[in-house]
């Protein structure tokens, strides 16, 4: 998750603070295969039954400790934010929401940097986002930390995260500096990079667990 913001000066300040957002690898499997340094994250489906043309190949999940009412509300907020972008070019993709209270345990062991509130795993077509991106109630201290780190308003925090992670996903880009540039273009409604020539809208299988592993070069 790396983005520029509204003005040139704000963009310059913003880019200086975006290095914590990372890209790594994740495995989606129907059954666990435990290995050294592998963490299994069980997930619950958070699909939203709205027939509005949103790609069926994009699926939403929440970790088990995510409050059920928050899960659906936050998945809907994420879905609405995603609709601003050309997500039809994503193809099959999973978005997983993790409560802030579990974030360090789930993400910290994998990337060693739980400060980042969003992680995209290109090889496994999955993005994981922290609860604090969606709400301040109950996670005010964590939200405040993110606002100070990225120097944006609370309303802009989700936009920043989503546009940056989509820049990784749509452009298949791992370089953070290039992803910054792509995400800025996305927020302006411009072509960020050369997207695939065909779009996808098929629904994929629904996993009930995710296996995380450190990215390997």
The shape, in one word, is globular
Quick check: average pLDDT? 74
Element-level helix/strand string:
HEEEEEHEHEEHHHE
Helical percentage: 25-40%
Output the structural class.
alpha/beta
Largest sheet: 6 strands, mixed
Which residue ranges are poorly predicted, with pLDDT under 50 across at least 5 consecutive positions? 2-37, 213-217
What labels describe this entry?
217 residues; alpha/beta; six-stranded mixed sheet; 6 helices; 16% strand; disordered C terminus
Write structural notes for this entry:
There is one protein chain. The protein is of the alpha/beta class and 217 residues long. The chain has one domain (8-210). It has six helices and nine strands; from the N terminus they run H-E-E-E-E-E-H-E-H-E-E-H-H-H-E. A six-stranded mixed beta sheet has the order 1-7-8-6-5-4. Strands 2-9-3 form a three-stranded antiparallel beta sheet, with helices on one face. Helix 2 links the parallel strand 5 and strand 6 (93-98). Helix 5 packs across helix 6 (176-187). The longest helix is centred in the C-terminal third of the chain and has 18 residues, at 154-171. The protein starts with 7 loop residues before the first helix and ends in a 5-residue tail after the last strand. The model is unreliable at 2-37 and 213-217 (pLDDT under 50).
């Amino acid at each position: 998750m790396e983005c520029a913001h509204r003005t040139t000066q704000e963009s310059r300040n913003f880019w200086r603070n975006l290095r914590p957002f990372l890209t790594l690898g994740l495995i989606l499997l129907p059954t666990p295969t435990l290995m050294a340094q592998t963490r299994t994250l069980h997930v619950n489906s958070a699909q939203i039954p709205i027939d509005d043309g949103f790609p069926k190949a994009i699926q939403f999940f929440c970790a088990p400790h995510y409050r059920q009412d928050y899960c659906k509300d936050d998945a809907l907020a994420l879905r609405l934010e995603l609709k601003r972008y050309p997500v039809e070019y994503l193809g099959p993709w999973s978005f997983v929401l993790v409560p802030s209270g579990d974030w360090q345990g789930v993400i910290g062991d994998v990337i060693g940097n739980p400060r980042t509130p969003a992680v995209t795993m290109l090889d496994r077509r999955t993005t994981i986002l922290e609860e604090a991106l969606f709400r301040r109630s109950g996670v005010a201290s964590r939200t405040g930390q993110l606002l100070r780190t990225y120097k944006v308003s609370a309303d802009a925090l989700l936009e920043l995260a989503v546009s940056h992670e989509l820049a990784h996903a749509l452009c298949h880009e791992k370089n953070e500096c290039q992803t910054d540039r792509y995400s800025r273009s996305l927020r302006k409604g411009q072509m960020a990079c050369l997207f695939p020539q065909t779009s996808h809208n098929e629904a994929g299988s629904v996993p009930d667990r995710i296996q995380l592993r450190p990215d390997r070069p």
